[in-house]
Each structure stands twice: as structure tokens, then as C-alpha cells.
Amino acid sequence: MDSIRAKAGDAPARGAPPREVELKLSVAPTAIEDLLAYPLLAKARAAPNQGGALRATYFDTDDQDLRRAGFALRIRRHGGRFIQTLKAERDAPGLVLDRHEWETPLDGQALDWSALEQTALAPLIRDKGLEQRLKPLFSVHTDRRAFLIDRKRARIELVLDRVEIAAGERTARFGEIELEVKRGTGVGLFDLALELAAAAPVRLSLATKSARGYALLDSEPPAAVKAEPIRLAPGQTGAEAFQAIARSCLAQAVANEALVREHRLAAAVHQFRVGLRRLRAAASLFSGLVSDEESRAIRAELRWMNHSTGEVRDHDVLMARMRDAPGHEPALAAAEARREELYDGLLARLDEPRFRRGLLATAAWIETGRWLTLDDPELAAKRNEPVEERAARELAKRRKRVIKRAERLAALDPETRHQLRIEAKKLRYGVEFFGRLFTGKKAKKRRKRTSHALEELQESLGTLNDIAVGGPLTLATMPGNEAGGDADECLDRAEQASKALAAVKPFWT
Fold first, then answer.
1. Residue 265 burial class via C-beta count within 10 angstroms: exposed 0-12, middle 13-18, buried 19 and up
2. How many angstroms separate the CA atoms of 253 and 258, rounded?
């Protein structure tokens, strides 16, 4: 996704469809009245012809071909008017929704196929025979209040929605805030969002109304959201590359945080932490670029958020090991009760203002932080440096450090081994972030071998750390378990992995 700072106020290219650039926040429906009474909104002017009751029907095939292709198609009734809207998600995941959209006024509730033939949906219409297969899948009823607010040389439309979605026999009700840039840049967008976060318990959200509707249709249980591949291009600036990486990492964390709150999903806790760790690793890889006071404060909040979820994650891992190891069945009931207590505490923590604001402030930092505009020649050079130059330099430096520290692996004390594991993890994330910049069969083969060696090294050192600290992640203290043999085996695997890493030629040269 292009930087909202650079693109939100730009005119679309000639012939390009209009673009919708918006930030979405979730809020309890009961809190909307509090927001309406907030002085900012109490004095704001209403957006003309935007509020009231909206009724929308979303269309797709039984196989959900539109959804799989990244489209959402609806007909919305507002007053006496019908509007057909097709939205197309952009390729890269992001925190700010950035979508192409095509709108067509209708005389009734039938789809206008001639208009759809003039959109990006045209190839799918022909290839999938959509005219015979599209049908209504779910409906969305919205009670909307809309305002126009001027903030930091930007005009922003603020929408408060009370929403009910019906999909078959299932329904869902929720509150939602949409902030859309109508004129200007995205700085005012986040400034306004942070002010709202101080007035009501709002939180950053990535779920569109269409995504929520499809979720109601799904019969499969929810799954944790894993990291998406990072797609950087040679010649991208350092600033553009960091934003692309950081957006993906935070989007992973935000999506999983919602799953934790809604389903207490152990895998989502893990992937939430992975998203935060990846973001912290990205900040480390771009440390010279994001080193100002605001950046340091955000990185401290990311550490706090990650630490806040640690006890729950440790207990989930312990329970998984208890289930896999014989003889611990009697202890599982007590462990399950303890898990519920820990999750109660975690959900309360996720609802704290500091946690909610922390995620939103991190998004603001990524998109419009001071690191993007500080008037410093050295910093400006780093912002504009081609990403492949930074990638080669950082990967080479960190690879050398890991290999050198691993040469005397058996003689290292547990704390030094733990630090080596952290360095290996950062290098592994760097390989994931930057790897696709370097193409060719040899580079691809070397990258895969490097990733495999780092994964083996990281996992072996992680198990060694668990054994060394004798904490909740090891079953060594339980009857019938001995740690000594496991430690020797893990040390041997770690040494073999470090040798394999040293044997692989760098893929970035």
C-alpha cells in the first residue's frame, strides 16, 4: 500500500477509478451516544446527504469467487436512491483501507452488468460466468451519523455507524467509526483518531462490513492470522520499505488481537506476539531511520504489549506439552481453570486505554510519524536510500554477528545463548522482509537454506533456554522427565544449524 502521507490527497491518475482511503475503528454501539455528546462532534457540521438509514445487499457466488479475488459488490439503498458499488482491495495489507471503488446509480435493485464490464471485475465476469451465478449472500443495515471535520489542512468525513448484519440465520451487531480523507493528507486522520480514543473506548480495526458478513457465513472455526509475504521492489526508498514492512506486521497483530478478544484463541495469542516481534525487528533493522524520540516511545510500548501477553502464551505452551506427554492428564483440569483466569486478565488488559491507544499510536507512527518529516540531512539520506542497499548491509552485519557468537556455542552461558537466539530471530525476520529483493535461482536457493538454518538454530536455542530457566515452558520438573539428555540433543542441533548457516553463501551478494 502506498503511503497515505504521500497519496491520500493526490488526484487520481487519468483514467484510474476513484480511490477510497479510510481508517476504521471499532466501538461498542452503546458508546456511540457518548461520542455524539463529545464537544468535537456536538459542534461539528453534518455531512450533507450521508446520514440516516442505509440498507445494503452484498452479492457473490456460492463459492465466494468475488471474495477470493479481492472484490466486494453491493447494492445500497439510502433514502429513495440505489447505488451499486464495487470495491477492490489493493495488493498489500495495510492499516488504512486503500481501495479502488466504482459506483453506479441504479433505478432499482438489479445489478448493472454493463457498468461492471467497465471495471476490474470484467475478466472475472467472463472467466467465471458470473451473470448466472451471482446472488445475494447477506445484508447490512446501518444507522449512520456523518460529519465533516477540518483538521491539520485536511477535510475528514467522520462516520458513526450502528450496524446489524444478517447472513442466513446468523446476525451480528456492532459499532464502527470510519474516518475518510476528503481533502489533504493523512496526518489529520490519525490526529482525529487519537482524539476519539481519548474520548471513548475505540480501537483500531481492519474488518470491513463485507468481511464481517462473510465471517458469519463461514462454517469453519476462526483461524489465527499468519504473516503475509513482504513484497518489496528494488529501488524503493528506505522509508517506503519500512512502511510496507511495518504495516504488514501491525496488521497481523491487530487481526489476531481481535481473535483473542472474541474467541480466546491460543494460536491468535501466539500470532499477535509474532506480529509485534516482527515489527520490533523491523524497527531494529531500520534503527537509524526510526531513532527519534517518538520512535523510541513507540518501541517501548511495543515491548510492553508483547510482555503483557507473555504469561498467557507460556501457559498455553505448557498445556500443549502436557497434552502431548503421558501422565499429566490429572493436572489438565487445574491447568484449564488457570488458563481461564489468565485469559480473563488478558482481555481486561487488552481493553485498557494504554493498550488500545498503543496500537492506534503505532499505526499513526508508521503512516505519519515525525521520522518521515524531520529536517535532518543524514536522516533524509536514510529515508531515500534504496532499500536493497540497506538490506545487504544489515543482513551481512547480522549474519556475521550470529556466526561469530555461535562459534563457541557449547561454552556460552544461558544468558549469552539467549541473546544469540534473539539475534538469530532478528536475522531470520530480516531474511523474510528483504529476501524477495534478490532474485535468481541461486539467490532463492541460498535464501531457503539460510532460513532453514536460522529456524533450526532459533528453535534449538529456545528449548535450551526453557530447560535452563526451569520455568513454565519445560516439563523437566515434572515426574518422569529428565532435562539433561534433551539439553545435549538441543545443543548438538544448534551447533549443526550454526555450521549450516556459515556454509551458505549470502544470497544478497
1. buried
2. 9
**Residue pair 230/385 in contact by the 8 Å Cβ criterion:** no
Q: Looking at this protein, which amino acid is placed at residue 506?
A: P
Report whether 131 contacts 113 (CB < 8 A).
yes
pLDDT of residue 486: 79
Is it the case that residue 312 has pLDDT exceeding 80? Answer: yes
Query: For 55, left (φ over 0), alpha (ψ -120 to 50), or beta?
Result: beta
In 3D space, the residue among 51, 23, 385 whose CA is nearest the CA of residue 196 turns out to be: 23
Annotate 355-390 with b (16+ C-beta within 10 A) or e (fewer).
bbbbbbbbbbbbbbbebbeeeeeebeebbebebbeb
Q: What is the DSSP letter of 30?
A: G
Q: And the C-alpha cell for 396?
A: 551481512
Query: Which of 379, 368, 311 has the alpha carbon at shortest distance from 339?
Result: 311
- The whole-number average pLDDT for the span 341-363 is 96
- pLDDT over threshold 50, residue 406: yes
What pTM did the predictor assign? 0.89
Contact between 39 and 149 under an 8 Å Cβ cutoff? The reply is no
Residue 22: what pLDDT?
A: 80
Residue 476 reports pLDDT greater than 70: no
Q: Cα–Cα distances in Å, from 183 out to 35, 94, 157, 366, 509?
A: 23, 20, 10, 20, 44
The secondary element (H helix, E strand) that includes residue 241 is: helix 238-263
The C-alpha cell 528494488 sits at: 234
Burial category of 105 from C-beta neighbours within 10 Å (exposed 0-12, middle 13-18, buried 19 and up): exposed
Structural element, H or E, at residue 465: helix 441-469
How does pLDDT run across 64-112, given as a tens digit for each residue?
999 999 999 999 999 899 999 999 875 544 566 566 889 999 999 899 9
**How buried is residue 291: exposed, middle or buried, by Cβ count under 10 Å (0-12/13-18/19+)?**
middle
Taking residues 395-415, report their average pLDDT.
Answer: 95
Residue 166 C-beta-side C-alpha neighbours within 13 Å: 9
- Amino acid type, 438: F
Going by pLDDT thresholds of 50, 70 and 90, the confidence category of residue 203 is very high
Q: Which string of b and e fits 182-194 if b means at least 16 CB within 10 Å?
A: eebbbbbbbebbe
C-alpha to C-alpha distance for 380 and 366, rounded to whole angstroms:
16
**What sign does the CA torsion over 480, 481, 485, 489 have?**
positive
For the stretch 215-224, pLDDT in tens is 999 878 899 9
In this structure, how many other beta carbons lie within 10 angstroms of the beta carbon of residue 412? 19
With the C-alpha atoms ordered 241, 246, 249, 252, is the resulting torsion angle positive or negative? Answer: negative
Instruction: Give the per-residue pLDDT at 338.
Output: 95
CATH fold of 4-220 reads Hypothetical Protein Pfu-838710-001 (2.40.320)
* Distance in angstroms (rounded) separating the CA atoms of residues 95 and 74: 23
